[in-house]
Amino acid sequence: MKKKQEHRIRIIPLGGLNEIGKNMLVVEVNDEIVVIDCGLAFPEDEMLGVDLVIPDISYLIKNKEKVRALILTHGHEDHIGAIPYVLRDLNVPIYGTKLTLGLVEIKLIEFGIDLNSVKLFTVRAGDVISFNNMRIEFIRTTHSIADSVAVAIHTPLGPIVHTGDFKVDFTPIEGEPIDLIRFAELGKQGVLALLCDSTNAERPGFTLSEKTVGATFDRIFSQAQGRVIVATFSSHIHRVQQVINSAEKQGRKICVLGRSMVNVVNKALELGYLKMPDGMLIDVDELDNYPPNKIVLITTGSQGEPMSALSRMASAEHKKVGIIPGDVVIISAAPIPGNEKFVNRVINDLFKQGAQVIYEDIDDIHVSGHACQEEIKLIHNLTRPKYSIPVHGEFKHLIHHAKLAMELGEKNVFVLENGKVLEITKDGAKVVGMVQAGNVLVDGLGVGDVGNVVLRDRRHLAQDGLFIVVLTIDSSTRDVISGPDIITRGFIYIRESEPLIEEAKRVIKDVLYFCNKNDITEPNAIKVILKDNLRNFLFEKTRRNPMIIPIITEI
């Protein structure tokens, strides 16, 4: 008699847990893998010079033959931003809604990737795609971007529901409300596991509807005597639509600034996700043709990004648009944790330029796209999962979410970390190990070539500077032919520190004398002794520890 197959499911987060952004989740059913989302994160302060952070996909590369698809829940950067990098090693079919894939195409084109080389498949809420061991169902949700979906992964042991980022908005700007009926139907069938958004798990109550922001825009636009400048995320199509709606009521023209904003607005107009009257959109070169009270500018820069259009306007460095007294600037976004100082710097600079600045602390110009506690409870109660795994958030968010689930009577709640492997069988669920996971740092064209050693060196240089010793030695006599010359950067100003430099040269000569006397001729050995002696000398004299680089040439 043939033995019945023992089904095994593994849930492995590769990003998005204990952090904001970089969302990526692996669901492995027997010998098949689907990956949910492929996002990036912004670098932390200590990641000097780093542009972006993406997930480590070593586990997926090792199991490439098992990966069937990349499933996208929506088009925000923290869910699609790593795709151009990941495609280099993992070119698998990508499934997403029309707007989501439209935004992916923009990114691929920017990276010079031939769209014909990528397998993109458009899905809609309600669609189902099938593989050998699982079926993937797409469920309509509401979020701060159009065309967002949750996914239900139907497995031999029951459905796994992944909410993606969501909120319960009964009056969305575009489309229908979240499909709570389908969540409830899955709950009646018996949900094996729920992976639910934790971003707002600390906040009680419900998240306000996106439409509340529109009323605030209407009031500000009607009172503004000059230009209105609105900064928001380029992918926040709903917010952009409300800006357009308020501008239309006041007879104002729309001008879009910032490369990503221009690209997204054009794509959303092309796909029908933004609606704007003919002739309302004008080019930046046409601004002077209209009085200030007939202009609305929509721009990037809500996070204080140094190279964004708003930041360059605030610092008077934008080539075509400057801030003029009477401008009303609306920063319609909440700062991502860690970005507060950049946003505040831009706000201060805007005030100095004579603008009136309106931001979240002083008016209702932003609502979250994520569910608060009561909405999270609602999804849990509708789905009634056997196992709960909070996702998307820092550790504190995951813990608050776990407490909510346990307050609802759920007993099998797992707070995971990136790389932890949760294995589910018919006998139960448990953490069975760890796979390689973490950060891959993107610096310019380099991907993954900046690691802990390079970051340590950058921090060292930033804190204490650089001290370079250059000298030339006769290889036969061991006499110094030229030097020692000393070059410093970020350590001391040489012209004002000549006594210290002269003492340092004496230390160098003493080391060379010691090496000659003890027959130490190997250049690397000399460099080690030189660095040790200089380090001790410089620290004693300055209480600083610069990076020391000896350059010894033998001729």
Description of the structure:
With 555 residues, the chain is α/β, with parallel strands linked by helices. 31% of the residues lie in helices and 24% in strands. The chain has 15 helices and 26 strands. An eight-stranded mixed sheet has the order 7-6-5-3-2-1-20-21. A six-stranded mixed sheet has the order 8-9-10-11-12-19, covered by helices on one side. Strands 15-14-16-13-17-18 form a six-stranded parallel sheet, with helices on both faces. It is globular. The protein starts with 8 loop residues before the first strand and ends with a strand. The mean pLDDT is 89.
Spans of at least 5 consecutive residues whose pLDDT stays below 50 are none
E-strand count:
26
The average pLDDT score comes to 89
Number of helices: 15
**Strand order in the sheet with the most strands:** 7-6-5-3-2-1-20-21
Taking the sheet with the most strands, its summary is:
8 strands, mixed
Radius of gyration over C-alpha positions, nearest whole angstrom: 29 Å
Helix content: 25-40%
Shape: globular
The class by helix and strand makeup works out as alpha/beta
Strand content range: 15-25%
Through-space gap between termini: 82 Å
List keywords for this structure.
15 helices; 8-stranded mixed β-sheet; alpha/beta
Quick rundown:
This protein is an alpha/beta fold and 555 residues long. It is globular and about 85 Å long.
List the helices and strands and how they pair.
Blueprint: E1 9-15, E2 24-29, E3 32-36, E4 52-55, H1 58-62, E5 67-71, H2 77-80, H3 83-86, E6 94-96, H4 98-110, E7 120-122, E8 128-130, E9 135-140, E10 149-155, E11 158-162, H5 180-189, E12 193-197, H6 211-223, E13 228-231, H7 237-249, E14 253-257, H8 259-271, E15 281-282, E16 295-299, H9 309-314, E17 328-331, H10 340-352, E18 356-358, H11 373-383, E19 387-391, H12 395-407, E20 420-425, E21 428-434, E22 439-443, E23 446-447, H13 452-464, E24 466-473, E25 480-489, H14 498-517, H15 523-542, E26 547-554
Parallel strand pairs: 3-5, 5-6, 6-7, 11-12, 12-19, 13-16, 13-17, 14-15, 14-16, 17-18, 24-26
Antiparallel strand pairs: 1-2, 1-20, 2-3, 4-22, 8-9, 9-10, 10-11, 20-21, 22-23, 24-25
